[in-house]
Design brief:
The complex is a heterodimer of chains A (113) and B (115). By secondary structure, chain A is an all-beta fold. Chain A has strands spanning 4-7, 10-14, 19-25, 31-37, 44-49, 55-58, 61-65, 71-76, 85-92, 94-95, 98-99, 102-103, 107-112. In chain A, strands 2, 4, 5, 9, 12 and 13 form a six-stranded mixed β-sheet that branches. In chain A, strands 1-3-8-7-6 form a five-stranded antiparallel β-sheet, with no helix packed on it. The radius of gyration of chain A is 14 Å and the shape is globular. By secondary structure, chain B is mainly β. Chain B has strands at 5-7, 10-13, 19-24, 31-37, 44-50, 53-57, 64-68, 74-78, 87-94, 105-106, 110-114. In chain B, strands 2, 4, 5, 6, 9, 10 and 11 form a seven-stranded mixed β-sheet that branches. Chain B has a four-stranded antiparallel β-sheet with strand order 1-3-8-7, with no helix packed on it. The interface between A and B is medium-sized, with 25 and 22 residues.
Chain lengths: 113, 115
Amino acid sequence: GQQVMQIPQYQHVQEGEDFTTYCNSSTTLSNIQWYKQRPGGHPVFLIQLVKSGEVKKQKRLTFQFGEAKKNSSLHITATQTTDVGTYFCAGGPLEGGYQKVTFGTGTKLQVIP
Amino acid sequence: DSGVTQTPKHLITATGQRVTLRCSPRSGDLSVYWYQQSLDQGLQFLIQYYNGEERAKGNILERFSAQQFPDLHSELNLSSLELGDSALYFCASSPQGGRGRETQYFGPGTRLLVL
């Protein structure tokens, strides 16, 4: 079955440093979604990318979808303590108009003040 | 607040017991998903329902079962509980069960502790 891996599994950064997490799928994705789970919280949708090579920005967060639609990345510039949490990518193929989404393994970000 | 509700928030029980977790989707959403998240682990997809029917199955144990009722709320039943079943159980909902490229809206979760 489809596998979606994320690296790194854990990342500790000093506040103000940049951070990047990478998402790699074993199969071609129709789209990629990113979710953030704060400590003690539930996953919350951040953004969706659909087109090959697409890049989207949300303030200090930059999301990229690979040209082959099998990988994606999330880059945070100048991290803040509010960025702490686990970031999940999610995606899947679109078959018959329906999509079965697989969540990535997640990257847990710790920001040291 | 995602609009998805889950009860109870916390549940402590003993090995061998049976529990039921409840989820109410966002108003208008027809599909419910169940996930298991063990400590510091990812989201393991268990099962999905759409408008009362099972749509997809993930790594759900035979001791676990679920259903979606006509009012669209869903219940996840966990039986013959083992220590390893201790985890956070999330319910998520989406409007059309994955039609197109839908976002999933997660509930606050039920934290289950099996002693």
